[in-house]
């Protein structure tokens, strides 16, 4: 049995599904912040939101594919599960970091927009 191929076959779909789920959550909920940042200009907010979504996909799926290669021999179900938990765990950490980075950007831009609104 080729455990490495099975590991790849599980790793990629799980990673892509997790990335899509997180990206859609950020996309859906980030729109509110972007509307405020861009003074209710829905066209601009939606355009920026879509560009951020594409960038999120490119970075996270690119990272997942880049880290696909397994350097150790996977010769049992146990080692397959351990490798999957390690690789998927890293992807979850990267997704979490990207999520908090997006939140940081949204809140920073929102704060600047509010300061600009008060000054105007």
Which helices and strands occur, and which strands form pairs?
Elements: H1 3-37, H2 42-66, H3 77-119
Helix pairs in contact: 1-2, 1-3, 2-3
Describe this structure in words.
It is a single chain. By secondary structure, this protein is mostly helical. It has one domain. The protein is built from three helices and no strands. The longest helix has 43 residues. The mean pLDDT is 88.
The gist of it:
This protein has 120 residues and is mainly alpha-helical.
Q: How would you describe this structure in keywords?
A:
120 residues; 86% helix; 3 helices
Helix content: over 70%
Query: What number of structural domains do the residues give?
Result: 1
List the total number of helices.
3
Count of extended strands:
0
How would you classify the helix and strand content by structural class?
mainly alpha
- From N to C, what is the helix and strand string? HHH
> How can the largest sheet be summarized?
none
| Principal-axis shape | elongated
**Uncertain ranges:** none
| Whole-angstrom Rg | 19 Å
Mean pLDDT: 88
């Amino acid at each position: 049995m080729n455990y490495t191929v099975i590991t790849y076959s599980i790793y990629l779909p799980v990673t892509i599904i997790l990335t899509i789920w997180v990206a859609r959550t950020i996309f859906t909920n980030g729109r509110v912040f972007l509307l405020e940042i861009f003074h209710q200009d829905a066209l601009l907010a939606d355009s920026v939101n879509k560009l951020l979504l594409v960038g999120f996909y490119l970075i996270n799926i690119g990272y997942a594919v880049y880290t696909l290669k397994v350097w150790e021999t996977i010769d049992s179900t146990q080692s397959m599960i351990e490798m999957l938990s390690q690789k998927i765990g890293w992807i979850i950490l990267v997704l979490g970091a990207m999520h908090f980075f997006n939140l940081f950007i949204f809140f920073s831009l929102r704060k600047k927009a509010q300061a600009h609104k008060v000054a105007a």
